[in-house]
Design a protein that fits this description.
This protein is an alpha+beta fold. It is built from three helices and five strands, in the order αααβββββ.
Length: about 140
């Protein structure tokens, strides 16, 4: 290819010539033709005065949408609660290296204490307590 334009092989020359405009190229439109600096200044000041109200309206709308999403989510969620002495399975620890075909749940374990915030102390079948409490989302009821 000897031409600087890659489109010349199809007979298209897009390199030029283009009309040279002095300054900024202005295309007349209704908006640009009806623009008036005298009318624009008060409208801009009014817009700036209304910006706080616009932000407050947007914040209220966001809170309303968040509340709606929370209500829809909470409607579908079933809370899990265990009592002391219940037998549960715990989710296999994600930090341990596990194979893809290994069990996803370990146990059974016995609930020994319920903490605030849906956390539980659990012990294995030999009575050995685990080193940390477990959240309810990592436990499920064991049916024997």
């Amino acid at each position: 290819m000897t031409s600087p334009c890659p489109f010349s092989q199809w007979g298209i020359d897009i390199v030029g010539p283009f009309p040279v405009a002095s300054g900024r190229l202005r295309i007349p439109s209704r908006r640009t033709q009806s623009f008036s600096t005298e009318q624009n200044e008060p409208l801009m000041r009014e817009s700036l005065d209304m910006i706080m109200e616009t932000r407050e309206v947007a914040a209220r709308r966001m809170e309303r949408e968040k509340a709606t999403m929370k209500a829809k989510y909470d409607k579908k969620v079933r809370g899990r609660r265990f009592e002391v002495g219940d037998m549960v399975l715990r989710r296999a620890d994600a930090l341990k290296m596990r194979g893809k075909l290994k069990a996803n749940w370990e146990g059974p374990y016995r609930i020994t204490q319920r903490l605030n915030g849906d956390a539980y102390w659990i012990e294995d079948k030999y009575g050995k307590k685990l080193p940390r409490p477990w959240n309810v989302c990592h436990l499920k009821k064991f049916y024997s």
